[in-house]
From TrEMBL, chains A, B:
SUPFAM superfamilies: D-aminoacid aminotransferase-like PLP-dependent enzymes (SSF56752). This is Aminodeoxychorismate lyase. Pathway: Cofactor biosynthesis; tetrahydrofolate biosynthesis; 4-aminobenzoate from chorismate: step 2/2. Keywords: Folate biosynthesis, Lyase, Pyridoxal phosphate. Belongs to the class-IV pyridoxal-phosphate-dependent aminotransferase family. It comes from Frateuria aurantia (strain ATCC 33424 / DSM 6220 / KCTC 2777 / LMG 1558 / NBRC 3245 / NCIMB 13370) (Acetobacter aurantius). The lineage of its organism: Bacteria, Pseudomonadati, Pseudomonadota, Gammaproteobacteria, Lysobacterales. CDD domains: ADCL_like (cd01559). Transmembrane segments: none annotated. One of its GO terms (molecular function) is pyridoxal phosphate binding.
């Protein structure tokens, strides 16, 4: 285990066994790319945390404290990834949330993984997963700690050349990849599935939707993907990633993918970008 | 935090922060009543753990080790409750299960809560929850660590006189209470909902079904419960508990409830019952 962990501000890699995150998955998380001490797209991460806390009835810590802890953990890393988890803290046995629950902050940093240029140039192969997202509007969109469906979906393949999985919901609608959001270009329109019934509303997806109002949120079925001229994924760590194949069907990155990759790249490499806004 | 905790056999109350149970709810648990060092209905708990491990692809620890650890933790307690969790252990960031995952055992014991005779005599009040169970056959029946739905359902009421909540699935079928299984007596038949689409298949429910083959597993809707002459709950800690009221509708414990309470009581108080079988 890495030593780069702060739990409620204390440098320790150990969590009390009665933590409700461990007991029930009672909490939320974010995976944040930190560039020279600056968490990329932090306002979007922070907004998702605040919405998640409100929906789960968790007390949200002061964002300034979270920001400070991310900086402490990554001060000697030019590029880092921080997993930031919030749990409902310690509590006695039983589902009932404690009347006075103390939200626990668990931040773990690691050096950022090297970007794979081939992956961005050529794209990833997508496996159609048998495991589906259950429909649960009460939790939809949140990056909460109940992630067994994605664990089971990701366990469906071990081929290292197959880097992502396509997941449908219980009604057979397209939702996302296992750890990224999905976009499809169909008849010249760029579409991404709605996430009000299940799925994780990614920060990179939110950024793309805000930057590019032409992208439409729409219901998609697997048959629609067969007609797509382009498919691509978004992830706050990997950015915009083309899909090179969906199962046996091969495809090449097209103009929408290239344009949004360029847009992401401009944001990601602009050292002056702080908190998601370009400083003057 | 109680000192009665063993993690992989070591007396510590601290879990590594990279545990996948904490990161993704990637694991299972059991809540076991231990009477004079003997875990009640252990073969049923063990069977559910083994089924859960098979379905999640976890390596199941030797049951003899679990049994020994439960006894160590409860040696000076006449009656205890042990929460026994199994997680996929530590792992790097990412949903993909590690190729070689070491299942982590987390056992925490506490003195058994005092039985409330009024609760068993008169019954509990049941609140109809707005939060529903998502339909997810891949996880249905298991007591896994993804329990946010029950946390949200249980958070719907704070009236201490209201002790349980009725939960439906997304299609409006009756599933269970938030922390107990449900039985309804309708037209003289004793019925309990199927749990192959969602819900937790409780050990007490399994025991009652095995003891009493007249109990039928059937699809139930809220309207059916309005016609029920009796409702009762089953839980491995509380046994058979009558329902005294469903929202505004009051009802009294009937003959089915009383008979199954007596059956449970005979099992629970028979000191010679070991491993669910009566010793000669």
């Amino acid at each position: 285990m890495s030593g780069r962990i702060l739990i409620d501000g204390v440098a320790t890699g150990l969590v009390p066994a009665d933590d409700r995150g461990l007991a029930y998955g009672d909490g939320l998380f974010e995976t944040v790319w930190v560039e020279a001490g600056r968490p990329r797209l932090w306002p979007l991460h922070r907004a998702r945390l605040e919405i998640g806390c409100a929906r789960l009835g968790l007390l949200c810590p002061d964002p300034a404290v979270l920001l400070d802890e991310m900086r402490q953990l990554t001060s000697d890393l030019p590029q880092a990834v921080v997993r930031l988890s919030l749990t409902r803290g310690s509590g006695p046995r039983g589902y009932a949330p404690p009347v006075v629950a103390q939200t626990r902050r668990i931040l773990a940093a690691s050096p950022a993984p090297a970007t794979n240029p081939a992956l961005l140039a050529e794209g990833v192969r997508l496996h159609s997963c048998a495991t589906r997202w259950a429909i649960q509007p009460a939790l939809a969109g949140l990056k909460h700690l109940n992630r067994l469906e994605q664990v089971l979906a990701r366990a469906e393949w071990s081929d290292p050349g197959m880097s992502e999985g396509l997941m449908l919901d219980m009604d057979g609608r397209v939702v996302s990849a296992t750890a990224a959001n999905l976009f499809a270009v169909i008849d010249g329109r760029c579409l991404t599935p709605a996430l009000d019934r299940c799925g994780v509303a990614g920060v990179a997806r939110a950024w793309l939707l805000a930057q590019c109002p032409q992208i439409e949120v729409e219901t998609l079925y697997p048959d629609d993907l067969q007609r797509a001229s382009e498919l691509f994924l978004s992830s706050s760590l990997r950015g915009v990633v083309p899909v090179a194949a969906l199962d046996a069907r091969r495809m090449g990155p097209g103009p929408w993918t290239r344009q949004l990759q360029a847009l992401w790249q401009a944001m990601a490499t602009d050292a002056a970008v702080v908190d998601g806004k370009v400083e003057t």
